[in-house]
Each structure stands twice: as C-alpha cells, then as structure tokens.
Specification:
By secondary structure, the chain is of the alpha/beta class. It contains 10 helices and 9 strands. It has a 4-stranded parallel beta sheet. A 3-stranded mixed beta sheet has the order 1-8-9, with helices on both faces. Pfam families: Asp_Glu_race.
C-alpha cells in the first residue's frame, strides 16, 4: 500500500523473489499526495487503503511508503495484526552508515530534518558523516512519470549532495523507481566515483516473506496474479506505471523475473 506508485518498487521485489505470489496493490489516487496532510488525516487515508487491501485477505501487508510508516504504521498494525502481519518501510540508514563512508540521505522535504529521520540518524549513524538532502518535487515528478521534472528535481538534489559522498540512501519509495537518473547526476557530481545505493524494496520484500514463513524462490514459474485497488476500487495499473521497469514487470511486459 502507498498513496501512489511508490509501491511498485516493493511489489516488483516481491514478484522477483516469489513469481508465484498473488499481489494486491492498494493506493489512494483520490487522496494523494499524503505528505502535505496532517498526521491525523494521513492516518485516516492510510487506514482506508489498508482496509481495502485487507478485504482481499492477504498473508501480509507492506506499507510501501516512508511517510505512512512514520505516521500511520502503529494504527494500521493495531487494526490488522495479528491476523495480517504489517511491514513498514524504514530508510536504510543503518547499513549505509556501517560502511564508514560519507552518507547522503535523499528524502522528501517533510521527512528531511524530521524528528523521525533525525532519530534514525541518532540511533544508527552516530559518528558517521551524514548529510540530509531534501528533494522537493521529486516524488511528484516520479508519480507523473514526467522526465523533465524528474531531471530538474534530481539535478537540484544532486547539487546539495557533497561531492565526496560514498553512500546514498533513497529515503522515499518513489525514488527507487528513478535510480538511474539519480546515479547519472551523482556520477557527474562526484567525478564518476563508484557510489553505493541503499533502497528499501528488497529488504522489505524479504522481511514480508520471513514474517509469513516463506522463502525466496525466484526460479518458480510466474503464476502470481495482480489486483490493483485505487482508493478501494478495483482498477488497472495507471499509465505512469509503465514508464518504469517495475511497472512493466508487474504487468508482464518484457522485464525478466529474477
């Protein structure tokens, strides 16, 4: 679940790990974006999206949104667990900081500098050199599959990223859909230095399988189905999803499994 197509990265990761998994993608086009909403309003929207997914009796629910994890995870867990395990999405600050290099955390303006993110830095990156990089407009540009807007937003964030950065945390699920432009912009910024990127999609997918007692079997035949919910209504993948390899994979259009 997510407000929009940021959930594609985690869903595609599950599909790669378990091609036989039936997936339900529950988003909220009627209420997005969630970021500018009050925590109470956002929690209400997130609960509605979670309830719509829960009606399909899933084995687990991934909250594939950093903002919803911050504000609504406890409420969603209180309502659905223990019947449905709920897995949140946390920026991969801990493994990035463990590398010992200089870390940049790309996140939405609302998350950058927030008590939540500062708490993660305090708990998991003490002593590390960490720069928080706000990325205004990037999630919206990804949601719209607007290449020009993505390029502009990525360039602006790259300009705020230290030239000696070694590790980059993608702290919004939308950003994982556009990792290639981010890599290109930062390669130009750092003189072509080899950077390490940390997303949340695969760790979250792995955690979801673990919570339900399943294991990764990427070699299985692809038999899993796909259900798409838009603010509770059954729908199709939005056109913007097909701009990304993750969306094409989920729709079965040319992207390999595994």
């Amino acid at each position: 679940m997510d407000s929009g197509i940021g959930l594609l990265a985690a869903a595609a990761a599950v599909r790669r790990l378990r091609p036989d998994a039936d997936l339900v993608l529950s988003s909220d086009p009627d209420g997005m974006p969630w970021g500018p909403r009050t925590p109470e309003d956002l929690t209400g929207r997130a609960l509605a999206v979670a309830r719509a997914a829960a009606e399909h009796r899933p084995d687990a629910l991934i909250v594939a949104c950093n903002t919803a994890t911050v504000h609504a995870l406890d409420a969603v867990r209180a309502e659905l667990e223990p019947d449905i395990p709920v897995i949140g999405t946390v920026p991969a600050i801990k493994p990035a900081a463990a590398s010992g290099g200089r870390v940049a955390i790309w996140a939405t303006p609302a998350t950058t500098g927030s008590p939540y993110q500062r708490g993660l830095i305090r708990d998991f990156a003490t002593g590390a050199r960490v720069t928080e990089v706000p990325c205004p407009g990037l999630a919206d540009a990804v949601e719209a599959a607007d290449d020009a807007a993505v390029t502009a937003a990525v360039a602006a964030a790259a300009a705020l990223t230290p030239a000696d950065v070694t590790d980059v945390v993608l702290g919004c699920t939308h950003y994982e859909l556009t990792e290639s432009p981010i890599r290109a912009a930062l390669a130009a910024r750092t003189g072509g230095a080899a950077l390490v990127y940390y997303g949340s999609a695969e760790p979250v997918a792995t955690q979801a399988l673990r919570r339900i007692g399943a294991v990764a079997e990427p070699g299985l035949p692809r038999t899993g189905g796909l259900t798409v919910l838009h603010s509770g209504r059954e729908a199709a993948l939005p056109a913007a999803a097909f701009a990304y390899i993750e969306g094409r994979l989920l729709a079965g259009q040319g992207a390999p499994v595994g």
